[in-house]
């Protein structure tokens, strides 16, 4: 589990809350409810800090498509560079100098 996803692990606190409802005093229940509420608020604050959460799903998809297109363009340029005469000449001259 990643560090971020561990921040959203609610089962332990819910189990503690249920246990306090069934087996403990009113003060323990109040403390457990407060701890649960604090955890939910903490999760909400964390969600608001994540990049892109202020964008609608369609805007996120549009941004994703733009980034994927940019990635493809960079891959094409890299392949073009790898196949370029200049690179081959440079590698050849480097190999000749090492011999």
UniProtKB/TrEMBL annotation:
Assigned keywords, A-Z: Activator, Nucleus, Transcription, Transcription regulation
UniProt GO cellular component terms: mediator complex
GO molecular function terms attached to this record: transcription coregulator activity
Superkingdom of origin organism: Eukaryota
The keyword Cell division belongs to this UniProt entry's keyword annotation: no
InterPro entries, alphabetized: Med9
Alphabetical GO biological process terms: regulation of transcription by RNA polymerase II
One Pfam family matching this protein: Med9
Function in brief: Component of the Mediator complex, a coactivator involved in the regulated transcription of nearly all RNA polymerase II-dependent genes. Mediator functions as a bridge to convey information from gene-specific regulatory proteins to the basal RNA polymerase II transcription machinery. Mediator is recruited to promoters by direct interactions with regulatory proteins and serves as a scaffold for the assembly of a functional preinitiation complex with RNA polymerase II and the general transcription factors.
Family assignment from sequence similarity: Belongs to the Mediator complex subunit 9 family.
Protein name: Mediator of RNA polymerase II transcription subunit 9
Record organism: Anaeramoeba flamelloides
